[in-house]
Amino acid sequence: MKSNLMKLANPCIFDINPYQPGKPVSECQREYGLSQFVKLASNENPFGPSPKVIQAIQEALPHIALYPDSHGFELRKALSEKYDVAIDNLMIGNGSEEILRMLLQAFIVPGQEVIFGQYSFMGYEILAKSVGAQVTKVQMPRWKMDFNEILKAISPKTKMILLANPNNPTGTYVNDEELKSFLTRLPSNVLVVCDEAYYEYIHKADYPQTHGWIAEFPNLIVTRTFSKGYGLAGLRVGYAMAHEEIIALVNRIRQPFNVNTLAQVAALSALKDQEHLEYCIKNNEINRDKLCAGLTDMGISYIPSEANFLMIHVKTDGFALHETLLKMGIIIRPLRYYQLQYYVRVSIGLEEENNCFLNALEKIGLREKVL
């Protein structure tokens, strides 16, 4: 029996290219036959989760036959106390990406417009197009979001703006004065999602503490994650802070039990171990500075970053470099999705991992190519 399943699909998905994550180590081992790989592709925390998190997960294992708390009360309560935000202004998700998807699903009607920067997280385009949104990418001069460009781009169809701060893949940020000025000029019927996946890594005095702004700006939504600074990428835990009406609306479409028991236990335990978080952040800064110094010594430029990765100008084809490094046991991220042929993004790893990357660049002759 002949069938044409393509005709059954939602037409909007034909304009979507599947998300290409950083290659997992196991896939590279199968493909290249190497036993060891250095993964610097997905902005993971190389120090891993707190030992207290591992212990809490082990203690929770006997209870996994029971469904998790569907509303994540204990975790939301801990977040409420940490950020001085009412518990009704909080929700949790299976990673902050699930929250972004739910926000788009709850507020976007097909044909309405979603705006984000040309060098923003590539998942934004997939998520927006999956709900039939019209996507507008604004220019990012100096590698950071330009709010004047956004304001010029707003049309009667505009419903939501997605803003990564710090931005991925550039590592740049917008400060509190810039962001607050923008929010005061923005029409109140346009939602702004501040995606702060790398919130824990930035300690600039002028970085906006947006969780304290949601009463002033009811159209502001703040999303964060436990995947990066807390080292829980494999468990998928994110959260949002917003006006209680936004939270209530999104909860109407949130799947029951969307964050599993072990993820909730791990996130709650991670919040309690701020000493481990501070250790990870401090050593990320140390290793980032050393990696920057090594690149500078080779004559290779990069975009100064406030996160746990660097966008590097390699002055050679970035995808070809990515393929060459894979054969040497190193995984990085090419940026051809952004039409940035001569750039790559590299996560900040352990010192020995960063040195392995630098030595590989030296070995393949990048120093000579840029001098």
TrEMBL record:
Enzyme group, top EC level? transferase
Q: Does the keyword Amino-acid biosynthesis apply?
A: yes
Domain Aminotransferase class I/classII large: start-end pairs: 37-355
Pfam families documented for this protein: Aminotran_1_2
PROSITE patterns xrefs: AA_TRANSFER_CLASS_2
Instruction: Name the UniProt key words of this record, in alphabetical order.
Output: Amino-acid biosynthesis, Aminotransferase, Histidine biosynthesis, Pyridoxal phosphate, Transferase
Kindly state which reaction or reactions the protein catalyses. Answer: L-histidinol phosphate + 2-oxoglutarate = 3-(imidazol-4-yl)-2-oxopropyl phosphate + L-glutamate
What pathway does this protein act in? Amino-acid biosynthesis; L-histidine biosynthesis; L-histidine from 5-phospho-alpha-D-ribose 1-diphosphate: step 7/9
Subunit info here reads: Homodimer.
What GO biological process terms does the UniProt entry carry, in alphabetical order? L-histidine biosynthetic process
Q: Can the keyword GTP-binding be found in this entry's annotation?
A: no
Q: Please name the InterPro entries in this protein's record.
A: Aminotrans_II_pyridoxalP_BS, Aminotransferase_I/II_large, HisP_aminotrans, HistidinolP_aminotransfase, PyrdxlP-dep_Trfase, PyrdxlP-dep_Trfase_major, PyrdxlP-dep_Trfase_small
Names of the cofactor(s): pyridoxal 5'-phosphate
- Extract the Gene3D superfamilies matched here: Aspartate Aminotransferase, domain 1, Type I PLP-dependent aspartate aminotransferase-like (Major domain)
Q: EC?
A: 2.6.1.9
Q: What name appears for this protein in its UniProt entry?
A: Histidinol-phosphate aminotransferase
GO molecular function annotations of the record: histidinol-phosphate transaminase activity; pyridoxal phosphate binding
- Gene name for this UniProt entry: hisC2
**UniProt record similarity statement:** Belongs to the class-II pyridoxal-phosphate-dependent aminotransferase family. Histidinol-phosphate aminotransferase subfamily.
